[in-house]
Write a structure and sequence with these properties.
globular; 4-stranded parallel sheet; alpha/beta
Amino acid sequence: MNIKTVEGRLEAGKLKFALIASRFNDFIVDKLVGGAVDYLVRHGADAKNLTLVRIPGAFEMPVVARKMAASKKYDGVICLGAVIRGATPHFDFVAGECVKGMAQVALETGVPVGFGVLTCDTLEQAIERAGSKAGNKGVEAAHAVLETVRVLEQL
């Protein structure tokens, strides 16, 4: 069977990316930022085409992502944060609204938004996902945005 297949090449070239990083749990988030930046640069991005915006926490991400995506200055937006479950339901509200808002931004603007926000039950799980045995979710979010940008170019 001969099927036309559309796939995104992993070459950042002259693409521009916004990285939005929460200050909350910054000792984890900084590792996600480092992973995302390293990935993009290794795939051809020029550091001058990367804009890092620091915000208070994950709850604020959707409004900032919307502003940046709507500006049409960026080909993709990568959101990086860490929400770690505590003793109250606060985690559920923050994590849920963060992911819903980011999905809405992508759909409204047509700009790919990468979900690099850890939602973990424990600090240990967050550490594992920020560059140790479970990989680096910042890298994964950057990869997903880059590939999606390149797929959308072909559609």
